[in-house]
Amino acid sequence: MLLYFDPGSGSLLLQIIIAAFVSILSFSKKIKISLRAFFKTLFKQKIKKE
Length: 50
What we know:
Elements: H1 7-49
């Protein structure tokens, strides 16, 4: 089944897809940085105690 997208709805759909992809990348990068910082502080505290 083929669907017809006019230029307005096609560009809107493309913008939604691009925005979702960029926001997922940005959110995952933020989580990765915060987790890395958390584990660095966690392991530094264990080393200092020993």
